Amino acid sequence: xxxxxxxxxxxxxxxxxxxxxxxxxxxxxxxxxxxxxxxxxxxxxxxxxxxxxxxxxxxxxxxxxxxxxxxxxxxxxxxxxxxxxxxxxxxxxxxxxxxxxxxxxxxxxxxxxxxxxxxxxxxxxxxxxxxxxxxxxxxxxxxxxxxxxxxxxxxxxxxxxxxxxxxxxxxxxxxxxxxxxxxxxxxxxxxxxxxxxxxxxxxxxxxxxxxxxxxxxxxxxxxxxxxxxxxxxxxxxxxxxxxxxxxxxxxxxxxxxxxxxxxxxxxxxxxxxxxxxxxxxxxxxxxxxxxxx
Length: 293
Fold this sequence. Notes:
mainly beta; Immunoglobulin-like; 1 helix; disordered C terminus
């Protein structure tokens, strides 16, 4: 990089020293603050080599596309540089739902590239994305921006619901706190399957009690609860409505399977995962019903 000084104090920067060279006598104007140096002359400028060979920062940076595990970033070349041999892109974690350490990631791309897709990122995480131009081993100052990946399907699988008591058409359960490394745990869903033919349930067909009744489905969502609502034990079959899901009484003629679903929601994206295992309650035909006085 070069500094061009003329008219006593006017200074310009350039990546090249220029081609038209004048004799040293053409630059005969002393610099105002250092008379031992020359600051150009009539129709002439003094050229000084700054000895800075690292490129300047890219002019701009822009996030173009984001998925659960990728971010596409685009940038423009630096205004000041001697030579650009490539670009160094870094992704450093700022905020995440993961409960394990995420190492900083780096990618090197060629000097004729001005955009790149960054893979292997953690879902639902905020990263600081920076781009710096390089001159072989010299790395220039970077330009950076923040970007957040889309939340992923909850992981690990939701825990098992703890069955405490069953009295006739109601059941007392405890819902354990769920973990999710791919996003927030926004809501808990209680799913009941009336075991007619050991059929389990199809997640795509899950709905509320009314939908299950209309479609003649033996399984449905009993309730959708916020995280602060699972602190106390929950009664399945209390005939109350929880976030749009009617908690109907349990039938007295069939075995029941109970399982848990996790809803993760952020930035208008919703991901749901249901437990891979269920808790079966075998019907005791001789079990007395609890009758309110």
